[in-house]
Here is the input.
Amino acid sequence: MTSIETGRAETRTISVAAAPARVFDYLSDARHIPEWAPGFARTVEHDHDDVWRVQADAGPQKMAVKAAKDHGVVDFVSADAPNLGLFARVVPNLTGAELIFSLFFPEGTEPAAVDAQMAVVDQELEAVRERVEA
Here is the structure.
């Protein structure tokens, strides 16, 4: 029997007073990442296809932006490990949108580290909302 490992899931959501298509278009354009996630990416440069080079405080890395507009999916994942990253959904909320960010943490991750990361996620959600509502 194959063992399946899952991590601790944490999800945050925010209501946005903008059409889902507007939220999706902003979020799926990787050039905007330094605006809403400056702690993750100081700069981003297109590499090829859906892969981007990210200059982060932790050093350079390659990230893939997997986007499907018809489904409201925008996932920001490691180009080398596509099961690791930020998984985002943009769904209709009456005439506006709901933006959902989910992260997964390995078993044994310190609760304080999870709390700190999710506080950053809350700030990122707010930053996206501010930009698309402007």
User: Anything to note?
Assistant: Strands lie at 8-16, 43-48, 51-56, 59-68, 73-78, 85-93, 96-105. DSSP finds three helices and seven strands in the chain. The CA atoms of residues 7 and 63 lie 20 Å apart.
